[in-house]
Specification:
By secondary structure, this protein is an alpha+beta fold. The protein is built from three helices and seven strands, in the order βαβββαβαββ. The chain has a seven-stranded mixed beta sheet with strand order 1-2-3-4-5-7-6. The chain is globular. About 25% of the residues are buried.
Length: about 140
């Protein structure tokens, strides 16, 4: 089994992430993925960078592929490389699995946007540098 972090193919990873949530890839977006035996298993796409904040969108088809090292890369990009104060993620209120994973990773609920999605509200999650346990 060959595991490889994918840093140099943002369009491939970003489009794959977007396919998981009907998002829209833009050429200036950044993305980080993890593939096993050449197939993407987990990825994060970033957009809406403001200088202080960035939005993160994720897709995972094999939770066993994630690791502390993967989280160190995706949050390291946000907090160490870009020097953001926070990362933002939005999850549909009916996606119990994603809510559970976000909370387990240390994301905090900041707000709820009523009727944001066709099938539920949006829960706005944030991760601040000081709350991120994956940084080196």
């Amino acid at each position: 089994m060959t595991r490889r972090f994918v840093f140099d193919e943002p369009e491939r990873v970003g489009r794959w992430v977007c396919d998981g949530f009907a998002g829209h890839w833009q050429p200036d977006n950044t993305a980080i993925g993890l593939e096993i035996d050449g197939a993407l298993k987990v990825g994060v796409m970033y957009d809406n960078y403001t200088g202080a904040s960035i939005a993160m969108h994720s897709r995972c088809i094999d939770p066993r592929a994630t690791s502390r090292e993967f989280y160190a890369h995706i949050f390291g990009y946000v907090f160490n490389q870009l020097k953001c104060k926070r990362a933002t993620g939005i999850v549909c209120s009916n996606n119990a699995r994603a809510i559970r994973v976000n909370e387990k990773l240390g994301w905090r609920r900041e707000a709820v946007l009523a009727d944001y999605f066709p099938d539920g509200d949006a829960i706005v999650f944030i991760m601040r540098r000081e709350d991120c346990r994956f940084l080196r």
